Amino acid sequence: MSDVTVIGGGLAGSEAAWQAAEAGCSVELWEMRPVKTTPAHHTEGLAELVCSNSMGNLSLTTASGLLKEELRRLGSMILRSADATRVPAGGALGLAREDFSAAVTEAVHGHPNIEVLRREATEIPEGPTVVATGPLTSEALAKEMAELSGETLYFYDAASPILFRDSLDEEKVYLASRYGKGEAAYLNCPMNGDEYYAFIEELTNAELAPIKDFEEDMYFEGCLPVEVIAGRGPETLRFGPMKPVGLPDARTGEEPYAVVQLRQDDAEGQLFNMVGFQTRLKWGEQKRVLRTIPGLENAEFARMGVMHRNTYLPSNRMLDATMRVRGSEVPLFFAGQLTGVEGYVESSAMGLIAGLNAARMACGEEPMELPQDTMTGALAQYITVKDGTLQPINSNWGLVPAAPKKENGRRLSKPERRELQARMALESLEKFAGLRTEVAG
Ligand SMILES: Cc1cc2nc3c(=O)[nH]c(=O)nc-3n(C[C@H](O)[C@H](O)[C@H](O)COP(=O)(O)OP(=O)(O)OC[C@H]3O[C@@H](n4cnc5c(N)ncnc54)[C@H](O)[C@@H]3O)c2cc1C
Predict the structure, then answer these.
(1) Could you give the CA distance from residue 194 to residue 251 in angstroms, rounded to a whole number?
(2) Gap from CA of 81 to ligand 1 centroid (Å)
(3) How far apart are CA 125 and CA 332, in angstroms?
(4) Boundaries of CATH 3.50.50.60 in the chain?
(5) pLDDT of residue 216
């Protein structure tokens, strides 16, 4: 029997398995694909990205940038694989989807302490375990988790379509990154006012795909379907995913009235995904409506948008900030999006904490919390102590201590304050990592 069992080979489970293995434990990683698949996964690779191929902003003036930097410094295998499979994406960490999954699969399969088993867990095994089966946990295990937690929570998440580049009208789309930041990485489909309002009209009247037991208003605000955003008012998309500012068309020198941005999705640049265009429209309707966008008249779809109900746990009543189930007799941990964080990087971060701690307990050591003034530690803290109902949460600046408004008598700008917050978090992490080495050594 292995020292630690990890269930689910997604972002969180792969990270957890790697961390536990690196700490010297023997690890069994159970992944049910391809024996059984989920409604959103398409491959048998570990850490498959189900929708966007972006891990968010790289800048340390963003909460997501800080979280990624912390994970790098904590030795995250997911971040290392992401950095190694980057595609041009302006200031964001865009990934060649398949290469990223292949890098993680290779790292996990190649680790001498990890054995990967392709099987579905229908119940939680005995012994030190990390459950990281994600928002689309298979039914039997979800039932067992509901019994353990007393309730499970859920929300709806949608994925955006992916297009073949050679089906786009290169005369109409143009390459640019917002405000010229980084390399010109996005393909932009420009719209004038008439085209924009005609598109909004089509989008808001298109037919939706039926979903079993669907309840309205249970969306995650950070990932709303494009038709829901459009339904909030005709201008809303122009101030959201279709914002044209900073994206002048080099051919005219002018900013269009609205744009649809496409981000490179594979290393070769043959696939592009529609940024912020997650949707629940029926597939036929998606094709019809999205082909009214200038440049996409003949677009061919490599993947359609879909929406799913996502499960998560009431971690605020169930877990402590080490990701351990409070009061459980055996070391039982949860990780990833199941714990109430949202997003690829956040899920990986909770995988890292759970993996490290499962290994510690397997070695007879106490699990540990990360400092609360780091983004990683603060996220873990938030989801495990939040009052009332836990809503899925991304990394954000409200979680870590605020920076002073002035330094050396000078008022700091917002980006400067963010950088200072990031610096404080990273210093705290370095101090903690130093301590950790001392304890381990
Ligand atoms: C439709 C949709 C769109 C999304 N879009 C985005 C996005 O654009 N950006 C973003 O950051 N996040 C997005 N998310 C959230 C995304 O799922 C998470 O950020 C991330 O994948 C969560 O990582 P995880 O490891 O917790 O779960 P996952 O990556 O889903 O991994 C869970 C793994 O567990 C396996 N599994 C499930 N049940 C069992 C079982 N019983 N036994 C064994 N294995 C099992 C699954 O096959 C899967 O490989 C989206 C989610 C959905 C459903």
Answers:
(1) 20
(2) 17
(3) 9
(4) 4-154+311-440
(5) 63
